[in-house]
Write a structure and sequence with these properties.
The chain is mainly alpha-helical and 529 residues long. Helix content is 73%, strand content 0%.
C-alpha cells in the first residue's frame, strides 16, 4: 500500500471499526437473542415439535455460507460483498418479525415462515462474521491487528450475555417480533457508516465462482447438521433417514474435495491446508467451537433450574464469563501488537479452558452462585486467550489474496464445531437425564427435551424437587466432563504451531502491485511456505 493510500485509509479505521462492531454485534446477538423469545413464539404459533429449528436454521445458514462469503470477497471486493450481506441480514430480520402476520396470510404457517426467514437471516450473518474479520485483515497489518481483533472478541463476549438479556426484556415489554425489528435501525447505521467511510485496498483477481463446489459443500454440511440434529431425537441413529443423510453427506464432501482440486478459483482452497499453521488452527477452531458453544448452552439451563434464576437473571449470571473473556482478549490483543509474538497464547488458552471445563463438571445442587461464577471466570479467561488469536494465526498463514477464504474457513470450522457440539452434548445430556429421577419432569418423552416445565418443577414437594434437581445438575455436569476430552486436545495441537513473524504496515504491497508482487511480499515477509 502506498503512503498516499495509507494516509487516506488510516483516519477512517476507527470509524469503520465502529460500523464493523455494530455488524458483528448484530450477527452474534441474533444467535442468542431468540432463546428467551421462543416460549412466546411457540405460544402464538404452536409447532413445539419444530421450535428448535428456529435456532438451527440460523446456525445452518451461517455455517454453510461463511466460506462462500469469504471467497466472494476475495473475488469481487470485500466492501461490496460485505454491504450485500448486511442488506440480506436486515431483509431476513424484517421478514422474521413479520412471520405469521396478515402480510403472509395469517399465523397458520407462522412457525414454518419464521424458520425459513431465520435461514435467510443466517445467510446474511455468515457474511457479517467473515466480512468483519477479513476487512480488519485488509485495513490493519497483522502486527497491529491483535488490538482490534481483541475488541471484536469483546463484542462477541458481550453479545453472548446480552442476547438472552435483551431478548427477555424486549419480549416482556414489547413483543417477540421486536427481537428481530431492533436489528433494522442498528443495521441501518452500520450500513450507512460503512458505505460512506470504508475504503479498502483493491487486489486484482480472476473472477470465477466455484458454484459447483459451493453447492456440494452446502449439501454436505446441511446433511451433517441434519444428522446431528435429528439423530437420536426425531429418528433413531440406525433409521433410514439418518443413514441416508450420512451417505449423502459423505458423497457430497468427497465430491467437493475432487472439485476443489480442479477448479481455478476454489471456494475453499485446499492448498491452504498444506500450511501447517493453517491446518492446526482450523482443527483448533473446530474443537473450540465444539466445546465452547456446545457446553455453554447448558449454563443458562443450570442457572434457571438448579439455581432458580429467571431467564433474564440467568443472562446476568453469565457476566463473570463475559468479564474474563473480555479482559483477556483485550490484554492479549495489545500484547501481540506490542511484541509480535502469539504462539504461547493458544497453548495457555487451551490449558485454562480445559481447567474451566473440569471445574464446571463439579457443578451440583449445592454449588453456590459465587463458586459457579468463579468457574465461569476461568472458562472465560481460557476463551479470551483463544478466540481472536486463532483468527489472527489463520490470516497470517496465507497470502493477502486468500485472506477472505482463510477468514471464511476459520469461521466455518468454528461454526460447524459448534453445530456438532450442540447436537452431541444435547444427546449426552438427554441420555444421562433419562437414566435419572429428573427424567420424570419431562412430559412427552424424549422428543427434543421440550417438555421441561419449570413452573411444575417449583410446585413439586421438597424431597421430589431435590431429587429432580440432583438429576439435572448431574446431567449438566456430565456434559462439561465430556467437553474436557475435546478441550485438552487444543493445547497439544497448539504446541506444534510455528511462530511466524507478523506482517507490519511496511510489509503490505502497493495497491497497484501485480499479483506476483503481492504474493512475493506476502510470502517473503510472513514466511509462508
Amino acid at each position: 500500500m502506498t503512503q498516499e493510500t495509507q494516509a487516506a485509509t488510516r483516519p477512517n479505521v476507527r470509524v469503520v471499526l465502529f460500523g464493523l462492531m455494530i455488524a458483528m454485534m448484530l450477527a452474534m446477538l441474533d444467535n442468542m437473542i431468540v432463546s428467551t423469545a421462543l416460549p412466546r413464539i411457540v405460544g402464538e404459533f404452536g409447532g413445539v415439535d419444530h421450535f428448535t429449528w428456529v435456532v438451527t436454521a440460523y446456525v445452518l445458514g451461517t455455517t454453510v455460507s461463511t466460506p462462500i462469503w469469504g471467497k466472494l470477497g476475495d473475488l469481487y471486493g470485500r466492501k461490496t460483498v460485505f454491504l450485500t450481506s448486511v442488506v440480506i441480514f436486515l431483509v431476513g430480520s424484517a421478514l422474521c418479525g413479520m412471520s405469521g402476520s396478515d402480510m403472509f396470510g395469517g399465523s397458520g404457517n407462522g412457525m414454518i415462515e419464521l424458520i425459513a426467514f431465520r435461514a435467510v437471516q443466517g445467510l446474511g450473518a455468515g457474511g457479517l462474521m467473515v466480512g468483519v474479520m477479513a476487512i480488519i485483515g485488509d485495513l490493519v497489518p497483522p502486527r497491529e491487528r491483535g488490538r482490534y481483533q481483541g475488541m471484536i472478541a469483546g463484542i462477541m463476549a458481550i453479545a453472548m450475555v446480552a442476547g438472552p438479556l435483551v431478548g427477555g426484556f424486549i419480549t416482556d415489554n414489547l413483543s417477540w417480533r421486536w427481537a428481530f425489528y431492533v436489528n433494522l435501525p442498528l443495521g441501518g447505521v452500520a450500513l450507512l457508516v460503512l458505505a460512506t467511510t470504508m475504503h479498502l485496498p483493491k487486489y486484482r483477481t480472476e473472477h470465477k465462482i466455484d458454484w459447483l463446489g459451493a453447492a456440494l459443500l452446502s449439501v454436505g454440511i446441511t446433511a451433517i447438521v441434519l444428522v446431528t440434529t435429528w439423530g437420536g431425537n426425531s429418528y433413531d441413529w440406525t433409521s433410514l433417514p439418518i443413514l441416508g443423510l450420512a451417505v449423502l453427506a459423505a458423497v457430497a464432501l468427497v465430491a467437493f474435495g475432487f472439485v476443489e482440486r480442479r477448479v481455478p478459483e476454489p471456494i475453499l482452497p485446499l492448498a491452504l491446508f498444506a500450511n501447517r499453521n493453517f491446518a492446526l488452527i482450523s482443527v483448533i477452531g473446530f474443537l473450540l467451537g465444539f466445546a465452547m458453544f456446545g457446553a455453554m448452552n447448558f449454563l443458562p439451563l443450570y442457572q434457571q433450574t438448579v439455581q432458580g434464576a429467571s431467564a433474564t437473571n440467568s443472562g446476568l449470571l453469565l457476566l463473570p464469563l463475559m468479564f474474563g473473556m473480555l479482559v483477556v482478549s483485550l490484554v492479549v490483543g495489545r500484547a501481540i501488537t506490542r511484541t509480535g509474538r502469539y504462539r504461547m497464547f493458544p497453548i495457555v488458552g487451551g490449558v485454562v479452558m480445559a481447567a474451566g471445563m473440569v471445574l464446571l463438571s463439579r457443578l451440583d445442587v449445592d454449588t453456590s452462585k459465587a463458586m459457579s461464577s468463579l468457574y465461569m471466570v476461568v472458562l472465560g479467561v481460557g476463551m479470551g486467550f483463544l478466540m481472536q488469536t486463532s483468527m489472527l494465526i489463520a490470516q497470517n498463514s496465507v497470502e493477502q489474496k486468500d485472506l477472505g477464504a482463510a477468514s471464511g474457513a476459520a469461521t466455518f470450522f468454528r461454526s460447524i464445531g459448534g453445530s456438532f457440539g450442540i447436537s452431541l452434548f444435547g444427546a449426552i445430556f438427554a441420555n444421562r437425564l433419562a437414566d435419572s429421577a429428573a427424567g420424570g419432569a419431562f412430559s412427552g418423552g424424549g422428543g427434543e427435551g421440550r417438555g421441561l416445565d419449570l413452573e411444575k418443577l417449583k410446585e413439586l414437594p421438597a424431597q421430589a424437587r431435590e431429587l429432580v434437581l440432583g438429576g439435572l445438575s448431574d446431567a449438566i455436569s456430565h456434559v462439561f466432563l465430556w467437553a474436557v476430552l475435546f478441550t485438552i486436545v487444543v493445547p497439544v495441537l497448539a504446541w506444534f504451531i510455528k511462530e511466524v513473524p507478523l506482517r507490519s504496515a511496511n510489509d503490505v504491497p502497493p495497491a497497484d502491485a501485480t499479483p506476483e508482487e503481492q504474493a512475493e511480499a506476502a510470502l517473503g515477509k510472513a514466511g509462508v511456505a
